[in-house]
Structure formats: structure tokens, C-alpha cells
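Run log, item B.
One chain of 582 residues. Sequence copied directly from the ordering sheet:
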Amino acid sequence: MGQAAGPEQGLTPLTNLELADLLEEIGDLLELKGDEGFRVRAYRRAARVVRGLGEPVQRVAEEGRLRSLPGVGPALAAKIQEMLTTGTSQYLEKLREEIPPGLREVMLVPGVGPRTAALLHSELGVADLESLEAAARAGRLRSVPRLGLRREEAILEGVARVRARGGLVPLAVARPLALELAAMLARRSEVVRVEVAGSVRRWCETVEAVVLVAAGPDPARIVEAFGALPGFREPPERSAGRARGRWGAGVPVELEATLPEAFGVALVRLTGSEAHWRRLEERAQGRGMRLGPAGLCVDGRQVPCDGEDELYRLLGLPPIPPELRENGHEVEEAAAGRLPRLLEPSDIRGDLHVHTDWSDGTASLEEMAIAARSRGYEYLAITDHSRSLAFARGLDVARLRGQAEAVAALNHKLAPFRVLAGIEVDILADGSLDLPDAALAELDFVIASVHSRMRQDRVTMTARLLRAIASPHVDVIGHLTGRLIGEREPCELDHEAVLEACAASGTALEINASPHRLDVDRCLARQARDRGVTLTLGTDAHDRVSLEDMAFGVGTARRARLGPGEVLNTLSADELLACRKG
């Protein structure tokens, strides 16, 4: 493949995130059309891959490497190239003409999937969130086939939830953008140092804005350089040392520029939380100092703080990890020497939830294993879907045994790296498992997850999960609540009963590290830890690039105050297998 053409003259090159948004939009519009599932998944996988690239996708295209990206074949590569060249594609524009753009927002309402959205559009002319709400309030939804009064009421509640969270940006979007913007600024000569701050740095699931702190000898020039970056919808607002604007599809972005000697104070203040900062101000005052936005003053003299550690030292504290800076109590813990030892990325010895091309993944067993090994892992659990998920090419007993044989051969080839033969077995509506006990007993690792009938009532869903937890072959319950951040609300269940059953049976709970899930969240993870339940981390990766999502799982575990001894992935493969229930 030869050199790719660059963007048309005068066109600002698409960033990775802008291209990913376009690919995601195609997937959504295809789904609204009722198109085949594999095409929808192909565009969404490509969006995930592009979003996670460690280099500009424009460079990948210019060097003729688009088809080397996981899941990108000739047709998709051509469409990506067209978007990079023109800023859009004829295919996307045709879809936009066919499908009202507001239907994508309608799909964010819990209980309104693509089929329901398309049905509401054809039956009632619903084209956006406003017309959906109006139809529900007028009692028109209940007349649509397969809906009824209860669904109408649930949809109206869902509209209110979507509006309530409308100003928040999922971490899955905010963090890649923050890192990309920081990299852009770092290449500018005006900047000597730049860091991501705000809720993104604390690994919060949703954020109000992407916040950056940059330092250099002339803060005004940094602000000017920031405003000149491609991707802003319109020139950002600027004031002394600050700028704010909306990037790409409308993500709020803020920058504070400072002199290098004030960088540490600015980074702590803008990382937050507000409660943490207020407690530091109080501590400084109690020690005869004054801490404010301008810096730390001792005896009327501003003390240079070019790093966070220096500020904490001057306040008589050890460094406090950003993930713990939430309610201010961590300041007292630090002062008393009681900060917990948190999980580190280097503690993780393997990924316990990945998919391959045996089901709905894009990479082979060997490709996933080699990618995991290249990350320094000692092992990888292969957990493809089971047979009830037909759209994901789930494995029946015969294919599962065939995969186990392939895993055994791969282990012989890759030793001492270990591939664990596993499954993500579906928990059916009555709590039974999608594969027989005899097949599950032959495996190294079994995750059980709910993928259907997510709107069962609290009692039914809890009983469903308790039956699965009681199985001697289930090692882990995957993505417990089934939520998709910003898209699907958690299912209704009795958390206390589930945690009690897990503790009694030795069943672990998963922190699903996919940034779209982060399920269980930090609160449930901490409750589980406090009740003696062990946690696992799994990326739920469907391609090699998504193995990098482990960072999101580690971030959630750290927010839950988990240490290495509370996460199964920190064990060796032999230790892990020795901990199994079966």
C-alpha cells in the first residue's frame, strides 16, 4: 500500500478522537437502520482502536499502515482515509440524510435500544429527545406495539436521567482527549511542563471538563498557543493565564497556565477535589502559612513549589495519590501515616477477561496472548462468550472444547507465558448457566455475566445472580450491574445479598476495566472488599489495543482503596488456579 494522501488543503487534520467519533456515529446510524450486527461492531471496534492509538492516526495513514490496525480491512481503511482527507465520508453523509441525528440521543435513554428508537420514529415520528418526551407525556408510547404503559413510564423516567447527566462527559471520552491535548501542548516551545488535572486525573467515571495545567516562562504565550490548537469549535475564552472552550463534538476543555515555580500548587488545586483543597488550606493556616490560588506563603514570602510532592512536604504530609483526594479525610490519614498501599499497574500479572475471534473479538488467540505478553503479563484468561449470545458467535460445548485444545497447543508454544482456558458464560433469565456443569468443570477460569433481560425487577434479578453465584464452577461475576456509562443504567438488584453470597461462596467480583463500564464502581468495590469479597480486573478487551484499558480498572481499584492483596490478578497463575472454587 502506497503513501496516503494528506488532508485537503485548508482542512484541519482530524484528531484521533474526532475520527473515532465519526466511526462511532456510523455504527450508531447503521444500528438504527437495523443493519447487520457485524457491520455495526466493525465500526465500533474501529472507533475503539483509533481512540486508543498511541500515535496520530493521520501518521498511520500517511505511512500506509491503516490495514495493520486490528479489525480494519480494505473497505474500512478506505472510509477512514476518506474521512482523514475530507473530514467526512460519502457513506456517513448518506446515513445522516436517512436517519434523523436526534435518534442517537434517543438511544441514550435506558430501555430504548436501536430497534425501539427506529420503531418510535416510524410509528410516532419521534426524531429527538424532545419529541420522545412529548409523546410519552401525551400517553402515545403505550399504543406502540411491544411497549405499553409500564415501558412508557420507564422511558419518561429515562429521559429525565439523560437530561440530568447531560453536562457530564464519560471518562472513556475525556481521558483520551486529555492525553492527546497534553501531548499537543508538550510539543510547543512555550511549554516546559504540562499535566492532566481535574476529575480525569482522579479517574472519576464522568467529568464536567477536561482540565490541563501547563507551565512555562510566559503563561500568556501558553494560553495563546492553546487557543491555536486545531479542534476547538470556536476560539476559546481567554483571561489571565486561563482559557476555556469546547473541543470537537463539544467537550468542555480548560487550561491554566502558570510559571514553573507555581506549577505544583496549581496542579494540586486543579486536580481537586474541592474538599481536599479546602482541607489543605486549613492545614496550611494551622501551621502559620497561607495557601491560595497564587501559591503557598510562609512568613509573607511565596515559597516555590514546582511539584506536588514539594507542596505536601511543606505541609508536613506525604504525597497523597490523586485517586484518594475526595472528601478531605485523606489529609488526616496522611498526617497520621495511615494512607493505604494502593494497587499499582506493575502489580497486575495478567488480564482475566478478554475475547478473541472465536466469538466477537477481532484478534486470534495467539495475537491476544502475544499482545498480553508484550505488556509484561505472565498469563491471560481467554473468556469468549457462550452459545446464547448468537450475535456474538458464542461458543457451544464442542467449540469450547476445540478452543481449549488450541489453548493447550498455544501454551506449549509460548511457555512460560500461560494462557488460561476460560469462558464468559451467560447467566440466563432464570439464573441457570448457558453451558453444562461438565463443560465448565474442564476450564481454568469461569466468569458468569448477565447480558440479557436487564430490566428484570430487583427480586428476580437478585435471585438470578444468587443462583449463578452458588454454582461451584463460577469463579467471578462479571460486570455485576450491567451499566454502560452514559448509555444504560445499572440493573436493579440487592447489593447486600449479592456481596454476602459472594463472601460465603468464595466467588469474586469483577471490576470491568472497559471505560464504558467500570463495573463494579469504586463504592461497590470497596463494599465488597470490606465484606471479604475478592476482586478481579478484566479489560473485556475485544482487540489487542483494548488490553490497555487495564489502566481504567486500576484507577477504579485505587479509588476503592484496594491494595494488591485484594485483587486476584496480582497472584501468579498457579496461585490463581489454587484459589478457584471448583
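Observations after the first pass:
- The chain has four domains: 16-98, 103-164, 170-335, 345-578.
- Residues 16-98 form a domain with the DNA polymerase; domain 1 fold (CATH 1.10.150.110).
Flagged for discussion on Thursday.
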